[in-house]
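Notebook p. 47: complex prediction with 2-OXO-4-methylpentanoic acid.
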Amino acid sequence: MDLKITKTEKPKQLPDESKLGFGELFTDHMFNMDYDPEQGWHNARIEPYAPIMMDPATMVLHYGQTIFEGLKAYRTSTENIQLFRPERNMSRLNDSAKLVCIPEADEAFLLHALKKLIAIDKAWVPGAPETSLYIRPTVVAMDQHLGVRPSNTYRLFIILSPVGAYYPEGFNPVKIWVTDQYVRAVCGGTGEAKTAANYAASLYGAEVAKKAGYTQVLWLDAIKKRYVEEVGTMNILFVINGALATPNLGGSILPGITRDSVLTLAKDWDIPVQERPITIDEVMSAHKDGSLQEIFGSGTAAVISPVSHLAWKDNVLTVGDGKVGPMAQKFYDAITDIQYGRSEDPFGWIVPVEEE
Ligand code: COI
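Predicted complex, structure tokens below:
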């Protein structure tokens, strides 16, 4: 497929890298591509960043038929720009697409277009410590129609945002609230897809958690309300008796790419890895008997996020000494060292963004 490129005549001012938040600023250009049943995906183009005009009857606005991805580009100390396991994001985008009846796109072409887009906006890839360029590929249903059915037409776009840490805490530990009152997703639903509905379903519980002084919610399974699932923007991992335990991917949990990277590293380091059902009661009793050593989250936006406190019913447990644990630190260092090119890439995770 051809890729048409139109550059902006009005470049924006680059941001102050010391003041980057998360997902607030956007670069000069974006990628767009359209789908209709006759032409398939077509009209691939990189063009100036601009709003998308939508008829008020556009289906995505009513039924939320939309999927997205999140990945990052990193600037190395030698001024190279590189991506971390981007082919995984492209294939997960297609996995999400299947679950909400969106037509799949050519993963190799998407990666090619993404590299071109980043090369054009390379000045926007920040170089300050622990900053990066967050990449958001998204697909939205574009039919103008109010009956409930899959759309026939779609827009796929990719936008870029220079970012700092996702949580205001940065790498400092976060406090997590566990609830059996609200649920995020159920097996057989869309929990393992990166689709807007999962995030909409998480908002109310997350606000309740925030009001109670917690950063995020740790969701339990929606049926028995016993099994730990994920924290809305990251997967969750426990260090119990020296082993790394995390909920298995049962259909309602996002298959995180950082999660997979942590598990791959752990196996390489001969740390016992357990992907299995974990009940909240097990976590509480492991804390009681002293075998719970650490809890941390993993995600593209969050990277590795240590958990200092876990609130469940009337108990608020302090994990370890409430500070960053050695395992969380080791994974954070190993992953970010690979991402920023400070260490070897033994697993072939890095994909360079070639110059234009
Ligand atoms: C990510 O880690 O990229 C996510 O998608 C989480 C989020 C900010 C929704």
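Notes: Residues 36 and 153 are 5 Å apart (CA to CA). The pocket of 2-OXO-4-methylpentanoic acid is lined by residues 70, 233, 299-301 (CB under 6 Å).
Next step: compare against the earlier run before touching the bench.
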